[in-house]
Amino acid sequence: MSRNMIAGNWKMNTLPSEGTELAQAVIAANSKPNCKVVFGVPAVQLAQIKELTSKHDNYFVAAQNCHHEDSGAYTGEISAPMLADLGIDYVILGHSERRDYFGENDELIAKKVRKVLDNGMLPIYCCGEKLDVREAGNHEVLVGQQIKTALFDLSAEDFGKVVIAYEPVWAIGTGVTASPEQAQDMHAYIREIISVQYGKEVAARTTILYGGSMKPANAADLIAKPDVDGGLVGGASLKAELFKDIVAAG
Ligand code: PGA
φ and ψ at 158, to 5 degrees? Predict the structure, then answer.
């Protein structure tokens, strides 16, 4: 089975009255995509986008976060069982914006990963270094640490359900994209540490996405690299005419 996936991350953009039309336009342009396509939508649109994607093969819906407890006095939060009850397929976890603006660390994200898996959904785990870390040459060490801390306590069976998104923070929303070679080098490194921990077969099956200013002009070159299995797309996922072309490249 193909590892390829294109996931859109709408972040805190689009109104409920706009979301269905956006997703529908992408589906209309690629009614039989070659890869899995995921819409990562604001919580208030999960139900409506799930209703739409459930009618189309290879289209799925993702939440952008969840709480690490099942229920309780956590005003404003949304739990994994709530998402599972809506039939949500994937949950994006550990995005750099969650780490930076909401103080999430690998230990907390590990708990969320556990909850998502326990509730029958699939985590999309985001990792990636900031510019100073890359400039100091420590990007592999840092990304390796993020992955080991948040994921490597999982069984091989559970790990096999995780999608990894490598998103260098210096490339997110900046218009600066990692070169296909930079992406490939990091993805190969990630696949290598997975291989050491879980074996070659699990490593070969793991979907590893690139994220950071992916657009129609660079998507095909990035995805052509052997260890780049698709993209997690922010800004360009908000315009159907851009996202549909990235889906076509997947
Ligand atoms: P971007 O965002 O495509 O706008 O750079 C990617 C992301 O944050 O997932």
Answer: -70, -40
Would the CA dihedral through 131, 9, 117, 37 be positive or negative? Answer: negative
Q: Name the residue with the closest Cα to ligand 1, atom 6.
A: 234
128-156 pLDDT, tens digit per residue, is 999 999 999 999 999 999 999 999 999 99
CATH number, domain containing residue 194: 3.20.20.70
Q: Using CA positions, which residue lies closest to atom 3 of ligand 1?
A: 234
Residue 149's domain comprises: 5-249
Q: Using one digit for the tens of pLDDT, what is the confidence trace for 54-95?
A: 999 999 999 999 999 999 999 999 999 999 999 999 999 999
- Centre of ligand 1 to C-alpha 168, Å, is 10
User: Model-level pTM?
Assistant: 0.97
Give 215's Cβ-side CA count (13 Å radius).
12
Provide CB contacts within 8 A for 113, sequence distance 6+: 93, 123, 125, 150, 151, 154, 162
